[in-house]
Automatic annotation (TrEMBL):
Designated name of the protein: histidine kinase
PANTHER family given in the database record: NITRATE/NITRITE SENSOR PROTEIN NARX-RELATED, NITRATE_NITRITE SENSOR PROTEIN NARQ
Main enzyme class: transferase
Keywords: ATP-binding, Kinase, Membrane, Nucleotide-binding, Phosphoprotein, Transferase, Transmembrane, Transmembrane helix, Two-component regulatory system
EC number(s) given by UniProt: 2.7.13.3
Gene Ontology MF terms: ATP binding; phosphorelay sensor kinase activity; protein dimerization activity
Alphabetical list of SMART domains matching this protein: HATPase_c
Highest classification ranks of the organism: Bacteria, Bacillati, Actinomycetota, Actinomycetes, Micromonosporales
Catalytic activity, as annotated: ATP + protein L-histidine = ADP + protein N-phospho-L-histidine
Domain of life: Bacteria
CC per GO annotation: membrane
Coiled-coil spans in chain: none
Every Histidine kinase domain range: 258-340
Residue intervals passing through the bilayer: 31-55, 86-109
């Protein structure tokens, strides 16, 4: 069940020995439920099973009453003799009442049968707190892993891109300094190449900075940042944002990166012709939805960045729901706490 719902915490191990186990309140409640379900629950089950049988027996009595001894009476609770068709029809009409009971009473009987279980098998008051602690522990670990991955990505970007550009600038400046004394005409060309390398290094640094926290969020807010993402998307994308006020910076950054990754997936994997991004604020929750008309079949286990999206969302105590049947469309629904 944990595959489709929240994590289920295993019960604590039982104490050794019968008497210590019986002193455990959980064991006593479970034993009480077994006794209650075996007696009261059994009776309720027999009643529920008998009602449709009585309904069929009474309703069909006018068909087969002639083959019975009239002195034996009718079916079930009918003890008086049935000698005429009118009497058999009256008995058959009572079957309508049995049918009504067979249709109306099962939900009531089910609630009666489930009531002892709700009372005796209910979780201890601290179970919800334990589950919450376990969930927070898991999301904290995932957040730390995501943070480590992000640091490695930044390190690789700086090492493979910006650092190499700056090394090239240093080499070119050294060559230009030597050329000033030997061949002044060549020095100008070398300085121009050094300037180009410096500009490329600055551009790569801006890319790294935008990957950490996009400045457009502070300048234009979430709506403007998402509109900018949609404008640079290779697939036609519409953005509908109605978020009064501002959310916490971390939440807006999470929403921004989730949309950015979702648009990247739509372009690379879904084959979509159109994408729609919708953002709403309901109370203290930020609701984000990304829909595309692609081929569907998105699966977190096959990569495509969906696992990273989920970890990023859960690190903010949010929830992700992905609906992507084969053949499409795909809908990614995200719920985040506004934090403000």
């Amino acid at each position: 069940m944990s595959r489709w719902g929240p994590e289920i915490i295993d019960p604590e191990p039982l104490p050794d020995g019968v008497l210590p186990a019986l002193r455990d309140s959980t064991v006593r409640r479970e034993a009480g439920w077994v006794v209650t379900h075996a007696t009261f629950g059994f009776v309720i089950g027999i009643v529920g099973f008998s009602l449709p049988l009585y309904a069929v027996q009474y309703l069909t009595f006018p068909v087969w009453w002639r083959w019975l001894d009239a002195e034996q009476g009718g079916p079930g609770f009918i003890s008086f003799p049935v000698r005429t068709e009118l009497g058999a029809l009256v008995v058959g009409l009572t079957g309508i009442g049995w049918a009504a009971l067979a249709l109306g009473l099962p939900p009531v009987l089910a609630r009666l049968q489930a009531a002892p279980g709700r009372g005796l098998l209910a979780a201890d008051p601290d179970t919800d707190l334990s589950l919450r602690v376990a969930q927070l522990t898991a999301t904290r670990a995932a957040a730390l892993d995501a943070h480590a991955v992000e640091l490695r990505r930044i390190e690789r970007s700086l090492h493979d891109g910006t650092q190499n550009r700056l090394v090239a600038v240093n080499v070119l400046l050294g060559a230009a300094r030597r050329a000033l004394t030997r061949d002044p005409d060549t020095a100008g060309e070398i300085l121009e190449r050094a300037q180009d390398a410096a500009e490329q290094a600055l551009a790569e640094l801006r890319t790294v900075v935008r990957g950490i926290l996009p400045p457009v969020l502070a300048d234009r807010g979430l709506s403007g940042a998402l509109t900018g993402l949609a404008g640079s998307c290779a697939v036609p994308c519409t953005v509908d944002v109605e978020v009064p006020g501002r959310c916490a910076v971390s939440v807006e950054a999470t929403a921004y990166f989730v949309v950015a990754e979702a648009l990247t997936n739509a372009v690379r994997h879904s084959g979509a012709a159109a994408v729609a991004v919708t953002v709403r604020r309901e109370g203290d929750r930020l609701l984000l939805r990304v829909d595309d008309d692609g081929r569907g079949g998105a699966d977190e286990s096959r990569g495509s960045g969906l696992g990273g999206i989920r970890r990023r969302i859960e690190a903010c105590d949010g929830r992700l729901t992905l609906i992507s049947p084969p053949g499409g469309p795909t809908s990614m629904q995200v719920e985040l706490p506004c934090g403000s």
